[in-house]
Amino acid sequence: MATVREGLPDGRYGRSADQRADRKLKILGAVLGAGFLAMIAWFGYSYITGQEISGRVIAFKVVSDDAVEVRLEITKDTGTAGVCTLRTLDADHAEVGRKDFTFGKGQGDTVKVVTVRTTGRATTAELVGCDPVSGD
């Protein structure tokens, strides 16, 4: 007696509908994943390049009851002038000093030491922010 086959022979008539659907889903997932990664990269790049000037406090030293020396690292383009604002705080976290430090276009990334005068003994110094300025 002859046996009856239930389906078509494997590999004889191309891919099945499930295999075609799986392939389409894989392609769609790869395209969407690549698009998402490109979008994240674009946002990161625009965030980094949008910041013309950045700075950070490397160290500070309380030199007396009315002065603090702050070592500030500034990252910027050579053709950008700017201003950074520093402030000092006492033990109660009250502001006891504030100073705006300006720098010109001629210098690129740099490290500067700035003395901030205070109205009382400071225990810490922090960078409030840096902004580009127009002019020289």
| Category by helix and strand content | alpha+beta
Count the DSSP helices: 1
Strand adjacency order, main sheet: 1-2-5
Low-pLDDT stretches: none
Q: If you compute it from the alpha carbons, what radius of gyration comes out, rounded to the nearest whole angstrom?
A: 31 Å
User: What shape does the CA trace take?
Assistant: elongated
Question: How many distinct beta strands?
Answer: 6
Order of helices and strands: HEEEEEE
Mean pLDDT, all residues: 84
Helix content: 25-40%
Separation of the first and last Cα atoms:
100 Å
Beta-strand content estimate: 35-45%
Main β sheet profile: 3 strands, antiparallel
Describe the structure.
This protein is of the alpha+beta class and 136 residues long. Helix content is 25%, strand content 43%. It is built from one helix and six strands. Strands 1-2-5 form a three-stranded antiparallel sheet, with no helix packed on it. It has a three-stranded antiparallel sheet with strand order 4-3-6, with no helix packed on it. A hairpin with a 5-residue loop joins strand 3 and strand 4. It is elongated. The protein starts with 16 loop residues before the first helix and ends with a strand.
